[in-house]
Design brief:
Layout: H1 2-8, H2 31-39, E1 46-53, E2 55-56, E3 68-69, H3 74-94, E4 99-107, H4 115-128, E5 130-141, H5 148-156, E6 161-167, H6 171-176, H7 183-195, E7 200-207, H8 214-226, E8 231-236, H9 258-274, E9 278-280, E10 284-286, H10 291-297, E11 302-304, E12 307-309, E13 315-319, E14 324-326, E15 330-334, H11 338-345, E16 352-357, H12 360-375, E17 377-379, H13 380-403, E18 411-413, E19 416-418, H14 427-432
Parallel strand pairs: 1-4, 1-13, 2-3, 4-5, 5-6, 6-7, 7-8
Antiparallel strand pairs: 8-10, 9-10, 11-12, 14-15, 15-16, 17-19, 18-19
Helix pairs in contact: 1-9, 3-4, 3-11, 4-5, 8-9, 12-13
Length: 449
């Protein structure tokens, strides 16, 4: 039974939004290296931007993001000045060569910004970077922050996709994670963004939360479906109190076991599929005409630090403390401390303090891992054609993995290595077989399912 397999595979593995993963970044790749990578962006290259807002007006106990609670707006206002400075510096190094295809505002809570500050931030971006006419603007929204003025501000900056955190609508679960948010609040925001022309709405749901049951998950999904979101993400709660101390507010006795977590995830997925949504990767669902579903069907799905995406840009520039950037040459990460980040960017500097330059072996393994995470398969022929001898070496690893896998999580089908449909919930564990850093690192990760 797959529930038994879920219990056996309750191992801690990365989510693989990059390869190599962030715990393996090191200080040898710093601001000086990042400066060169920014200056190497080609004329006409399409780029994506990620803006991190590291503040919330309340702290959700389930959250593992880099953020802090503040009851006063002054720290946020000070931070925004630093963010504006970094935008100007980075854009100056890009020198107008890169054209912005997508922007993602994340956090923290981007929507805790005052309406005038949201508008000003959007204006600073467009003043400094060259935007493509059809650039996509995505914003993570906390419904508790929202009012008409903020909705109008998001419309003014050109938001094209709204992503709302739901988690679970059950009041007992919400109280246990310090995230009380009614269905009517959520519906009002969905209605508000759609009334302002936003055509794509995403809802984030969680399973494995304290006091969560299959009944509460079923009820939450049913209510979410009445809002007819274009996309839904179904994440497993990552209980990492050694990484985020506020998660100690959650009593581990309240958490469902691995078999129950797996049952919750499969129930939620089944309900979404029965409602006509298509599975995208292992934890996203989308309406058939949504661009994410189209990307998945046509083999164009990608995975980056925001998760599954149709974004094909090779360059993703992270702005703000702890933000991660992706370049052809490798990855960099900004200083996590908001205060130190502010000092680093105040006089025209960059805030990158760690990262990793990609080797050819990294590129091959990264390609395999992304293919597994997005398509649940990769072609042996394409692997060798793309990477030559380096691909041939990894082909032997793949063959050995498939032959020695007693659970049959990876199979050889003609010229392709395939994760069978019934094993797709465990794809992170399959991807981990190709991660050469995993055994050498000291990082602790969340459970696989």
């Amino acid at each position: 039974m797959k529930s038994e397999l879920a219990a056996r595979l309750g191992e801690n593995v990365p989510r693989y939004t990059s390869y190599p993963t962030a715990p393996h970044f090191h200080p040898g790749v710093d601001a000086a290296i990042q400066r060169g990578w920014l200056e190497a962006i080609g004329s006409g290259d399409e780029i994506s931007l990620y803006l991190h807002i590291p503040y919330c007006d309340r702290l959700c106990w389930f959250c593992a993001c880099h953020t802090k609670q503040t009851r006063h707006y002054q720290p946020v206002a000070i931070y925004l000045r630093s963010l504006h400075a970094e935008i100007a510096t980075v854009a100056g190094l890009v020198g107008g060569r890169g054209h912005v295809r997508a922007v993602h505002f994340g956090g923290g809570s981007p929507t805790m910004l005052k309406p005038e500050d949201l508008v000003a931030l959007g204006a600073v971006l467009r003043k400094n970077f060259e935007f493509l006419p059809d650039a996509r603007i995505s914003v993570e929204i906390d419904p508790n922050d929202m009012d008409d003025a903020r909705l109008d501000a998001l419309a003014e900056i050109g938001m094209t996709r709204a992503s709302l955190g739901v988690q679970d609508f059950d009041p007992k679960v919400q109280k246990a994670i310090n995230r009380e948010q009614s269905f009517l609040q959520t519906k009002a925001v969905v209605d508000g963004v759609r009334a302002r022309g936003v055509r794509s709405v995403n809802l984030d749901l969680l399973y494995g939360l304290p006091h969560q049951t299959r009944e509460s998950v079923s009820s939450t999904v049913a209510q979410a479906l009445t809002l007819e979101p274009d996309r839904m993400a179904l994440f497993g709660y990552a209980h990492v109190p050694w990484f985020k101390k506020h998660q100690t507010m959650i009593d581990e006795a309240w958490l469902p076991g691995s078999a129950e977590r797996f049952a919750q995830s499969q129930l939620a997925a089944c309900l979404m599929l029965n409602a006509g949504y298509e599975a995208v990767g292992f934890d996203h669902f989308a309406k058939p005409n949504d661009s994410l579903a189209v990307a998945a069907r046509t083999g164009c799905l990608r995975r980056n630090f925001q998760g599954y995406t149709e974004d094909r840009c090779e360059t993703l520039i992270g702005l703000g403390p702890s933000s991660i950037s992706q370049f052809r040459q490798g990855h960099t990460q900004n200083m996590p401390s908001t205060a130190e980040y502010g000092r680093m960017v105040s006089d025209g500097g960059l805030a990158a303090v760690r990262g990793i330059a990609l080797t050819e072996d990294d590129r091959v393994r990264g390609w395999i891992i992304e293919k597994l995470m997005c398509d649940f398969a990769f072609s042996a022929i394409e692997l060798v054609e793309r990477f030559g001898e380096a691909g041939q070496r990894l082909l032997l690893t793949a063959s050995s993995t498939a032959l020695r896998d007693p659970e049959g999580l990876l199979e050889l089908d003609s010229d392709s290595f395939v994760v069978p449909a019934e094993s797709r919930p465990f794809v992170r564990s399959v991807a981990a077989k190709f991660d050469k850093y995993l055994e050498t690192g000291k990082a602790r990760h969340s459970v696989a399912v």
